[in-house]
Amino acid sequence: MTAAAITVRDPDHAALRSREAARRGFAGLLVAALAVLVLAVAAPQPASAAADPGFVNWIKQFWPTAKANGISAATYNAAFAGVDRPDPDVLRLNAKQPEFTKSVGEYLASAVSDARVNEGRRKFAQWKPWLDRISTRFGVEPQILVAIWGVETSYGAVLENPKIVRSVVRSLATLAYAGGPRTDFGRTQLIAALTILQDHDVAPRGLTGSWAGAMGHTQFIPTSFLQYAVDMDGDGKRNIWTSVPDALATAANLLAKNGWRPGETWGYEVELPRGFNLALADEKTWRPISDWAKLGVRRTGARPFPRGTDKAKLILPAGARGPAFLTLINFDVIKRYNNSTSYAIAVGYLADRIVGVPPFRTPWPVDAHPLSRDQIVKLQQVLTARGFPVGAIDGKIGPGTRDAVRAYQLSAGLPPDGYPTVELLARLGG
After folding, report:
1. Max Cα–Cα distance, the chain, nearest Å
2. Which first-to-last residue range defines the signal peptide (predicted)?
3. What is the number of structural domains in the chain?
4. 201: CATH
5. Which secondary structure element, helix H or strand E, spans residue 326, and what is its range?
6. Does residue 414 form part of some domain?
7. Which of 180, 179, 184 is nearest to 223 (CA)?
């Protein structure tokens, strides 16, 4: 999940309580009571023989920041009870720079496997009464919610894996303590996690998630939980860890608040006519589907488009040799959940398969191996030196790099699909 906005306020330049604390009337606490709470935090806590003194000291030093954001000492003490050393797995994963990624085809093979499709159909039937209620309330189609659930946690199966699920407070404190690019993320999310505990949506023992703090059936980071979480089952708690209705409704709320269009799909697999101008597949140009049809773009399987007035973009996620898609606004809304083209296609495709839409017709190229991070950096450097600026040289394939690749391809008389390959890098002399 992408982070919702929240500001971590340090005590030297911020008010003593957050908006959430003020709303709950914490401003009326007596000074004497506050003093007792502060003493409770300052008091030495029992430490295990393997305690990390630096980490324990960091927890003590972070308390004023937590208090400045409206966290009570009781909440703070309960959250950090028994937490006296950083999570070694989080330290390892935080320091690891992923070198290789999967191609879209490789990713879809696992994310939308036959087993996951079949299990999704079972979950769809099992939870249909709740899904119908959620869909009526938020205007998001049930199959999309089940697909998000499937891609995020394999319908909750991941939550039963102790090698993956761990204490969110410890994980985020480890990220904040360790230093590096995720320090600010760790601090911000830790404050949000403590706020969740203070709101009594979950007990400290139940506040679990991934090493980076993604939580529950539908994997919300703490700030996004605070922004979107829903108590769908009416038990008084927003519980995305053990309440499937709450988790699915929370996902629906995120999509709805980010512009989901009820009754529209995410996109269509399409076929392009011979000689089609691939430069139009720039992932930015919106046209009514009827206009794309006039250019010869057809839905696969000779199926009609439901509405020619829907606006869509043309994308080639694996380049000219792979499938082509017209993606609608809902595709971009899915990317607000996870800003990845592969992820959005997986969710949309799994949702379609769950309700009986046939598989994609065009095969994914088996030899379309993504560039490594070092290769992407080299490509960005060479393109920039050749007069095709990519923007930031960051080892990531974003719109700027794709535009630069497309511009180079046009200048070299190559199909301008904007897709970076090892062959393209070699041609550039990289």
Report:
1. 79
2. none
3. 2
4. 1.10.8.350
5. strand 324-327
6. yes
7. 184
